[in-house]
Amino acid sequence: MRGKLIVLLSAAAAVALPGAALAQSTQIKIDSGTIRGSEEEGVLSWKGVPFAQPPLGELRWRAPQPVKAWQGVRETTQYSNDCMQIPFGGDAAPLGTTPAEDCLYANVWRPTAAKGKLPVMVWIYGGGFVNGGASPPTYAGANLAREGIMFVSFNYRLGRFGTFALPQLTASNPDQGRLGNYGTMDQIAALEWVKRNIASFGGDPANVTIIGESAGGMSVHNLLTSPLSQKLFQRAVVMSGGNGRTEGAKSLAEVETIGQNFARRHSIDPQSPDALKSLRALTAEQVTDGLSMMSRGPGPETVTGPFPDGKVLVDLDEAYAAGRFAKVPVIIGATSADIGGRSGFMVAGAREASGDLADQKVPVWYYRFSYVADSIGQPGAQHAAEIPYFFDNTAIKYGSATTPKDVKVGKQVSKYLVNFVKTGNPNGADLVQWPQFTRAGDEMMEFTAQGSTVAQRDPWGAEIDNEKKRVAEARATGHYHSLVTPIGTMLDDPAANEVLKRHLPDFVSSPQIGMARGMTFNAIKGYLPTVLTDEKLQALDADLAKLPRKTP
């Protein structure tokens, strides 16, 4: 009788306190302590899990430091703050939190009922290295987790918090030569955290895929070639990351100059013994100083993105050419109306990178995403348009405007990604066969505007090759500045800059000019037809041709 009573009381307690069982299922121990997440609709999640100490005070402009262990159980059911930035209107993935400097946290989703080690996908957001975060609803990992994988996202420092140097900081060298590229160091620290801890969540640390879009895609290129990260993942996906090359500083010395410019903007003498202390005393808002994707600020350059420092990051061209990179299976692609147009650096860069990797015998699958949601009502898939489809989050992105066709395309596209995360090959049953890319075959998969998948030779290949040839000829003849010269190159040349100001004063003075630095006028004229008319561009090209010839 007493035994039956104990059973009955135990059953009653389980009914009365369902949270007890839930807490047990979501409570796990990682290397820094015990955490408790949540469960919803067959998916377990942990949000706001620290992977490094808050980069505050003396840790501003330092490599990420190990998390200090805590006692008891830490609740991890809400996103942390996204990293410090100025959000901008029109962002395709609006932030879900208030930005702050204390932001180095990760999020994990996994299917509740799965058994065995799960393959892991790690998401790296874009935003020009000045915007973005892990909290946007479109980046949620629950739907992909339901397909049998583990989804991890995290934050990394942006803007001047993410890339900064000063001679004083270099001289003190607190992190054994790891200088300047703090956002990239955060990305590497997050991957190291995954390697150490993901097994506690049920993931396989030996089966990790990194995936990034835009600046996140460029980051994937950086991680493929960084000596510090090549053993931290087994597969990679580059979405609208071009060939990984960026306009900006190319050395630590250049970044130090940019840091000194920023100090002077805040009336801090960069030569003062207290310069670094004074800069660290600035508020997070003062360091951000109005910076966003839409505005870089007036005067001398005070911000740059990741750069080859020789220890954290290396020269991409040299690394790829020499075969000094992680030779793992890769998916690379862009959208049909991506930044720069059909032959611009996103679309052409994706094709170029596919060739560079294929030449090194790396398995590469190349794509172009052309589908546009029924509710958009305009042709051409814009930059970042593919994300909700690859993540099977179309209903989250488009809400009540989502159509059955949108959902169908998302289910289809996401299957390729899930297959790749699981096996290193995107192909599977009931899917159109996606061929590997070769330079000779120029093979690609197009996710068409009609919602189908078509494996074909790149129909834009000849146009991309012709544009590349025109650029090479312009450089070879010494006609260095032209409509096929990167706009940033002309902005940095005083003589060419004056010509641009004379012909296109409103364009040059626009806060958005920073976004165009890596593009050419030929590539972007279709996006600004009333500003960059054929007449204006012909006159501009004629005056650029009159400038003194330069050595290529």
Overview of this structure, please?
A hairpin with a 2-residue loop joins β1 and β2. The chain is globular, with a radius of gyration of 25 Å. Helices cover about 35% and strands about 15% of the residues. The strands form two sheets. An eleven-stranded mixed sheet has the order 3-4-6-8-7-9-10-11-12-13-14, with helices on both faces. The chain is built from 21 helices and 14 strands. It has three domains: about 325 residues, Alpha/Beta hydrolase fold, catalytic domain (Rossmann fold, 3-Layer(aba) Sandwich); about 110 residues, no CATH class; about 70 residues, no CATH class. It has about 550 residues and is of the alpha/beta class. α18 runs antiparallel to α21.
List the helices and strands and how they pair.
Layout: H1 2-16, H2 18-26, E1 27-30, E2 33-36, E3 38-40, E4 43-50, E5 73-75, E6 105-111, E7 118-124, H3 142-145, E8 150-154, H4 159-162, H5 167-172, H6 182-201, E9 203-213, H7 215-225, E10 235-239, H8 252-265, H9 275-281, H10 284-288, H11 316-322, E11 330-335, H12 347-359, E12 364-369, H13 387-390, H14 394-398, H15 404-423, E13 443-447, E14 453-457, H16 461-476, H17 487-491, H18 494-503, H19 505-509, H20 521-524, H21 534-545
Parallel strand pairs: 2-5, 7-8, 7-9, 9-10, 10-11, 11-12, 12-13
Antiparallel strand pairs: 1-2, 3-4, 4-6, 6-8, 13-14
